[in-house]
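A reminder from the course coordinator: this example appears on the midterm review sheet, so study it carefully.

Given structure:
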């Protein structure tokens, strides 16, 4: 499997875990030092632990992913780092209300030499332009 195929497989697994509310697998797809920028959050989240804490708050408020679809994937390899860009359609339930979001996302993956797998180390989620 080529490096590009490995990154695409890692991205598919991350999206699958998110779409299935598989919290353990979802957060296992990120390095501990991962950072996150979400257009819905007032400030960046500067660690996986910070995002996990926010995720738990969301779940306590009735947050649930109903589905998530990735389209138009693109990968750019930069040595042991890869940029993955895609369009994301997500259906959520938040406090009993169903929400559909159309967003564009960049995920930076870094190859873990000791494990030979690609982990996400940065995620940036933006609202889809009108």
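Designed residues:
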């Amino acid at each position: 499997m080529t490096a590009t195929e490995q990154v695409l497989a890692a991205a598919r697994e991350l999206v699958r875990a998110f779409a299935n509310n598989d919290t353990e697998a979802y957060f296992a797809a990120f390095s501990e030092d991962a950072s996150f920028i979400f257009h819905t959050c007032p400030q960046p989240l500067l660690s996986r632990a910070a995002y996990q804490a926010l995720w738990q708050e969301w779940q306590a408020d009735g947050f649930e992913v109903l589905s998530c679809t990735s389209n138009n994937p693109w990968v750019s390899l930069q040595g042991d780092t890869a940029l993955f860009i895609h369009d994301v359609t997500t259906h959520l339930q938040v406090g009993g209300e169903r929400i559909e979001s159309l967003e564009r996302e960049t995920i930076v993956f870094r190859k873990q030499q000791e494990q030979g797998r690609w982990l996400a180390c940065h995620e940036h989620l933006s609202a889809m332009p009108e």
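The mean pLDDT is 95. Helices lie at 3-19, 23-28, 48-60.
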